[in-house]
Amino acid sequence: MSILHATTGLDLDDTAVGYAYRSTADLRLAYWLFRLLRWGWVVRWANWSGAKALSWRLPVEPLLRSTLGRLFLGGETLEATLPILANLRQFGVEAMLDFAVEAAQTEKEAEMAFQEYQRLLRFASQHREQVPFVAIKLTALAPPLLFQKLSQEAPLASTLEAFHSKLQERLEALCQQATAAGIGLMIDAEESWLQKAIDTIAETYMARYNTQFPWIYTSVQMYRRDRLDYLKGLLARAGNYLPGIKLVRGAYVEKERAYAAAHNQPDPIHPTKAATDIAYDAALMYCLERLDHLGLCVATHNRTSCMKAAQYLILKNWDRRHPHFSFSQLYGMADPLSFGLAKGGFRVIKYLPYGPLRQAFPYLARRAEENSSLSDQSGRELRWIAAELERRRQAAKRLYP
Ligand SMILES: Cc1cc2nc3c(=O)[nH]c(=O)nc-3n(C[C@H](O)[C@H](O)[C@H](O)COP(=O)(O)OP(=O)(O)OC[C@H]3O[C@@H](n4cnc5c(N)ncnc54)[C@H](O)[C@@H]3O)c2cc1C
User: Fold this and answer.
1) Digit-coded pLDDT (tens) for 239-280
2) 352 - beta bridge partners?
3) pLDDT digit string (tens) for 278-318?
């Protein structure tokens, strides 16, 4: 038993708790899928051919739907997520819905995403018990080029000017709708060359809407070398409002390194995983010490970081469901952490994407890549799933010897 386990009394490896919501058939599928995902070349090939097959309209959707889709997606429509929301709720776990759509390139795509976000917020307000948060991606509401130009403080062409003013109108409407309905709105963090503009925009709306409560959240990627200073600056600047911070490690290590090399820029990412972990936990403690003055969502599958956050609240004798505090993990990942924390009385929000498979494919491909290339995530998932399948086999043997 680890020191963290002993001091918190939490068991974040209890697979019976972690997978109670999953059928044995789903777990078998997850086992084989996570085994496959460990082969980097298989994932690269599958992602490449999957994208091609979808663009050529080959009939691969049923296969995707019954594999990656079944494990990581909430469904293809909002209504399709309802059984999953009810299932999670049974175990005290809530959800943050995310319309899985990639960056907009045209006004039509931006408008489509905006309308879906409005619909999503209406849905969340009707199912507030199950969906207290909604995630949005600013590049779904305007083309990435706009954020790049704004980040560089470069002049905007008239088409980008038009996108910019539309973006402001749309964000104002979404923030108003979310806060009026009592739903939190979390803005995703994206690539570093877009993020400066996203930071500025997120701060503007947090300052406007978070004067009483942290409704609007920005995301801070702690794999970036500059983010601890950014976080401290953000909290210092936020004199009369409560910033919402979704703390993540960051999803684009390889892309960031490649971009920096191609543009002759210094690598913005910490040199090692260990350095990212240190930065994440430092930021975590910095936020926890100021929890009355901000909102904090600990968005990670990292067991040690989750344990540290839980331990802090427990040792300080703070309310485990402090209204400013939550844990979040992606749907279909790190379930023993999510359900173990929920069982321990903490607020846990599963990040649940939904959307048509064709549009959600890049999200699924990212999950596949994340589980193959960088981390030992798939190893961790596999060990948990294998342990649970074995536990169920033994339990069945005892029942029917
Ligand atoms: C609820 C939720 C919301 C999220 N939202 C966002 C978002 O808005 N934007 C975003 O970018 N990501 C987001 N992510 C993804 C997140 O950033 C991580 O990619 C993912 O969660 C894995 O990190 P971890 O903390 O869970 O776990 P771990 O497995 O402990 O850490 C893996 C992470 O460590 C870092 N890392 C790995 N190898 C190295 C290395 N060699 N050098 C430096 N760092 C390294 C990377 O960030 C990698 O993703 C989100 C994740 C969750 C759970």
Assistant:
1) 899 999 999 999 999 999 999 999 999 999 999 999 999 999
2) 97
3) 999 999 999 999 999 999 999 999 999 999 999 999 999 99
- Pick the closest to residue 224 from 282, 267, 179 (CA basis): 267
pLDDT averaged over the chain? 91
- Identify the residue whose C-alpha is closest to ligand 1 atom 44: 273
Q: Which of 138, 133, 124 is nearest to 351 (CA)?
A: 133
Which of 34, 133, 249 for a ligand 1 pocket mutation test, highest count of atoms within 8 Å of Cβ? 249
Tell me how many domains the chain contains: 1
331-367 pLDDT, tens digit per residue, is 999 999 999 999 999 999 999 999 987 777 777 777 7
State in Å: Cα 187 to ligand 1 middle.
16
Is any ligand 1 atom within 6 A of the Cβ of residue 250?
yes
pLDDT at 60: 67
Pocket test for ligand 1, best of 218, 246, 248 (most atoms within 8 A of CB): 248
Residue 252: alpha-carbon gap to chain centroid: 13
Model's pTM, two decimal places?
0.94
Owning domain of residue 240: 3-399
Mutate to test the pocket of ligand 1, among 187, 349, 375 (most ligand atoms within 8 A of CB): 375
Ligand 1 lined by 378 (C-beta under 6 Å): no
Domain CATH code at residue 42? 3.20.20.220
> What is the sign, positive or negative, of the torsion defined by CA atoms of 142, 144, 146, 151?
positive
Residue 217 Cβ < 6 Å to ligand 1 = no
Write down how long the chain is: 401
295 by DSSP, 3-state: which? strand
pLDDT for the residue 163? 97
State whether the beta carbon of 338 lies less than 6 angstroms from ligand 1: no
Kind and range of the H or E run holding 184: strand 184-187
Is residue 300 in contact with ligand 1, taking CB distance under 6 Å?
yes
d(Cα 323, Cα 321) in Å, to the nearest integer?
6
- Asked if the model's pLDDT at residue 199 lies above 50, the reply is yes
Neighbouring-strand partners of residue 330:
351
Task: Using the mean position of ligand 1's atoms as its centre, give its distance from the Cα of residue 126 in Å.
Answer: 31
